[in-house]
Amino acid sequence: MRIDIITVLPNLLDSPFNHSIIKRAQQNGQVEIYVHNLRDYSTNKHKNVDDYAFSGEAGMVMMIEPIDKAIETLKSERHYDEIIYTSPDGIKYNQREANKLATLENIIILCGHYKGIDQRIRDHLITMEISIGDYVLTGGELAAAVIVDSVVRLIPGAISDEVSALTDSFQDNLLAPPVYTRPSDYKGWKVPEILLSGDSKKIEQWKEDQSMERTRRLRPDLLEE
Ligand code: ADE
């Protein structure tokens, strides 16, 4: 899979992709992640990428031309399955959307900023808008990092323990059961007896029951979906 991110703040994305699973997935060739500085596509001598809104409202709007040039340059090199814009207006991101994105070959993520982007970019170039939640961030970079992280860990082989992505919370609309490690007794805080029993059938049943109980108690909305 290849992910191209277009942003005015490329340095903000230096760190999130250079650790742990996401770093290893790149080193192993399971994913290629490229961060492009939108200013490199500005034709203006000050490298501006934003301008005043025609509607006169406060706040700058990201200009059409640098974004069009950046996207066109990438599209001239390969086909993209989705061109995503991160915005609070988008569809609410969840595990189902992450699963779908993880099956794609090439995606572009355009990070929003300022007051937003010229609507014509959304009308003509963007194929999908994603919001990571009902709150407003200062820019789309952190949303892009969230999307990339959630997608890359689903790419086969990215997580060494293959089953662990499948048993995540949300993978079957259930929260994951609680987990414990040694010591089995810390200051009198004990691990549930059943986990020490060695009876794998009973442990499986316990995990299922815990998943269901936690989901009912903490996220009943997931059971209604
Ligand atoms: N940009 C600003 N807020 C955002 C959000 N909630 N999700 C995605 N992109 C955003």
Write the layout of secondary structure elements.
Blueprint: E1 2-7, H1 20-27, E2 32-37, E3 50-52, E4 60-62, H2 64-77, E5 82-92, H3 95-101, E6 106-111, H4 119-124, E7 128-131, H5 141-152, H6 162-166, E8 185-186, E9 189-190, H7 200-218, H8 220-224
Parallel strand pairs: 1-2, 1-6, 5-6, 5-7
Antiparallel strand pairs: 3-4, 8-9
The structure holds adenine.
Structure description:
The protein folds into two domains: 2-152, 3-Layer(aba) Sandwich (Alpha/beta knot), CATH 3.40.1280; 168-224, tRNA(m1g37)methyltransferase, domain 2 (Trp Operon Repressor, Chain A), CATH 1.10.1270. Strand 5 (82-92), helix 3 (95-101) and strand 6 (106-111) form a beta-alpha-beta unit. The chain has helices at 20-27, 64-77, 95-101, 119-124, 141-152, 162-166, 200-218, 220-224, and strands at 2-7, 32-37, 50-52, 60-62, 82-92, 106-111, 128-131, 185-186, 189-190. The strands form three sheets. It has a five-stranded parallel sheet with strand order 2-1-6-5-7, sandwiched between helices. Strands 3-4 form a two-stranded antiparallel sheet. By secondary structure, the chain is of the alpha/beta class. It is built from eight helices and nine strands. The longest helix has 19 residues, at 200-218. The structure holds adenine. Adenine (ADE) binds at residues 86-88, 112, 131-133, 135-137, 140, 143.
